[in-house]
Amino acid sequence: MKRLVALYRRPSYSPLQHRTNDTAILEATAAELSHAGWDVTGATESDVEGGRLPGADLYLNMCQGTKASERLSAVGVGSARVVNRPESVLNCHRQRLVETLVTAGVPFPKTLLARTTPGATTGVPIDLLTTDHDPIWVKRGDVHAERAEDVVVTDRDGIDETLAAFARRGIQWAALQANVPGPIVKFYGVADGRFFRWYSATGDASVKADEARLREVAFGAAQALGLEVFGGDVALPAPDRPVLIDLNDWPSFAPFRADAARAIAGYVHDTFRNGARV
Fold this sequence. Notes:
CATH architecture of the largest domain: 3-Layer(aba) Sandwich
Helix content: 25-40%
Number of strands: 12
Order of helices and strands: EHEHEHEHHEEEHEEEHEEH
Number of helices: 8
Oligomer: single chain
Number of domains: 3
Strand order of the largest sheet: 2-1-3-4
Largest sheet: 4 strands, parallel
């Protein structure tokens, strides 16, 4: 019997309701694969960090921290399949994310990386982000948001204090991002295209999007980062002009959990059977 280990994310990387939702999609996907004949067990991100990684043919990897990803990469997993690969997870950390997406030509807001130390913005060309006092998004520069204070909207006058607040929490880098006007759309996908869903972040049914163009941007970004299971956020200055503002590995798929779990399990099962090593 084929062995599967579900690697659960550290709770701090799943704030508020995401903790329950992240666990639920991983468990639902593992259950689908169990029904398909896989022997399923679980392990935590702390287990991975401590070198306690059970042997398996397949790892469903929801770990998000640097230590776990580096440990998973270092120990190697032989011929085992890992979804998402630890290198792809690290690509989602803010500094790598910005550099990779810009290099790949994905529509993405102008973003500057800055240290949070006092005076660090002196040499940062803020005028590239705003011509006046337009909104500027300040996001922690390592992992994705762990709590609300990790993503702050301010203006040029508030940047220094926002960075100082990050520094007091031990966050060394931040991403300063230009605001993109228009409604925000959230999306979820699986690499081979068998699953793609999107919806208005505010629940506004009147929001329109060119789905073909939205898919092109979402899947292009995921491919650039090496992600197989992904989700993100897009701003729509116009229905046919999606601008990616964030991309995540193994999101919760909460509004579509049952369908997503079946699609992810089917994708993993099919690519494993066909000998794929994405």
